[in-house]
Amino acid sequence: xxxxxxxLIRIEGRVYRKNLIQEQAFPHEEEEDFYAGRGDCMxxxxxxxxxxxxxxxxxxxxxxxxxxxxxxxxxxxxTKKRLETETQTSISIPKPGVEGEIVIMGQHRSGVVxxxxxxxxxxxxxxxxxxxxxxLSFALNQPTIQEKFLQFKEQVLEKCSKDHGVSSSLFQNPAxxxxxxxxxxxxxxxxxxxxxxxLQRCKEDxxxxxxxxxxxxxxVSGVEYMNDDPxxxxxxxxxxxxxxxxxxxxxxxxxxxxxxxASGLMxxxxxxxxxxxxxxxxxxxxxxxxxxxxTMTGKSSFKERESFNGQNILKLFENFYFGExxxxxxxxxxxxxxxASGYYATSGQLCFS
Length: 353
Hints:
Largest sheet: 4 strands, antiparallel
Oligomer: single chain
Structural class: alpha+beta
Radius of gyration: 24 Å
Strand order of the largest sheet: 3-4-6-5
Helix content: 25-40%
Number of helices: 10
Distance between the termini: 50 Å
């Protein structure tokens, strides 16, 4: 890696450098005691956030979801102590599990700015390591689609069950068939509300214009696999496309992800959203409640998988028709949850009509 071109971190509209040399100074430091080094952000201006002047000096408040407090505190409080000592500030953190603001106070504005910036960098790093809690989805669990899916499952097991790795445990729960647009880490009610508000702004900004206030008619047909070798398949998915041949569904998906990435609620993973619905996944073999599509998983999970031979399935069901469906909303779905219909619990919704 070129030390003259260090990686950049974008936080709240500002770009910060990562100090590569300083990172290497603590190669064995445990995750809970992660700390942004002294030279990381000392020269950065503090206009990305508000620093108040008080009778005793300066103060800055930062909203942090309670699950992230531990990364600021560190093991036995070491990270917090080091931050306070090196920036000459006092950092007040709410009790574990209590949502609130972290307050940074100090006699010098530069010290408060430095402490706040280091906290931002530290939290940004650990937020990226959190498992996702929510995802934007189109529900594909309408009764006609579920019925065809169950026919597909029955026929695959009847004709291909002797193929290596093929079993009933690989199949998606029909009540949870969906398209995933992107995943989010939302750690408290305030962040969930922020995502819901953004959905409504997207509706006003571009979704209504694209849909004309009407549902989108899509066709669900044809199976395809994710990886390079069909004899060692991890995920089999069904393709989804607009019945009228337009790209309106793709436009909505891409624009939504673009807006959520820009807001900081979602990480950018691809230039375009891949419109697909998982029907078979080797992750389900280990945990049938795991709704992740292949495209949402880290590399480490693939090492634990037992692939299946999908060659015959692809030949026999290449053009299998799952049906036609009306898409009338984008949902902010909660991971590992179910509503009365068996689909994921909905934290927010963007309705087309």
